[in-house]
Structure of rRNA methyltransferase 2, mitochondrial:
Amino acid sequence: MFLNVNIRWGANIWGLARPLRFIRLNSQSRWLDRQSNDYYTREAKVQNLRSRAAFKLMEIDDKFHFFNKDKTQRVLDLGFAPGAWSQVARQRVGPQGMVLGVDILPCDPPRGVHSIQANILSAKTQELVRLYFSRYFQLYKNDELHKHHGYFQDGLEDELHNIRDTETYREIFDSSLITNKTDKYPVDVVISDMYECWPQTTGFWNNLTNLAYYRMANTSGVAVRDHYQSIDLGDAALVTAIDLLKPQGNFVCKLYTGKEDKLFEKRLRKVFQQVNRFKPDSSRNESKEIYFVGLRKKALIDKLDVFMS
Ligand SMILES: C[S@@+](CC[C@H](N)C(=O)[O-])C[C@H]1O[C@@H](n2cnc3c(N)ncnc32)[C@H](O)[C@@H]1O
């Protein structure tokens, strides 16, 4: 059904704003009602988890077992805010593991997790992730770096300035030099729940210079748009996995389902030995989200072949 509105700018716009605000408040209160009646939301509060999303990752791991307390695993959580998946990863990798969250929005990471406020679509983000997991520049151990809200990048520019000229730095970033200092694939598990942001509770965009909150992909309710935007973020997560994930490493990625699922799945099959599609019980029936799980990354991957055919 189309709403036929004849807008004369200036004259009628404020008249239109009122009903629109009413519609928004109505959908907000429906969302609040649904939240307060929801088992997983209540349970998340009881268990001190940052959101109900935690239960989705628990269910996915209960089925596919990609976290392992016995190995020292390094986990990269893409779009980690507010941090429920990072909490689950932290618990499931055990004390020796490392968890790094990346989010375009600023967010205090959960206990035992470090974070970078960065856009996954930027090449610099990979550099930061690589340095974080590097055994030779253990920046995460330096208190100076996380004294402000745990943000790893505080002071990072100074550190980068000091180390960019060193031989070790060159070895870490020069993939043609395979030495025992080079950790070409520093990550064991990549998890990506990238999509809509958590509700803004204070004016934190004062911290941002690039108006990330406006530029990000927010779920619009228009299925086609949400689907294509989530495919873009899924592809960004897949590129990150191709570049940083160890052979035999594992990958979890949320997607809003639609026409291109099959193509995304085909790309995943070129990177992982086993690919599964999964809808956890804790994901609402009416939600279009599904989760792809890629197990055991292949050793040789041709990125062009993954994305071109
Ligand atoms: C649904 S939330 C993630 C919830 C999280 N898994 C949890 O359990 O708390 C999606 C997140 O993706 C982030 N995001 C979206 N686009 C991004 C991008 N290009 N780079 C980094 N983070 C992004 C958003 O800021 C948002 O916080």
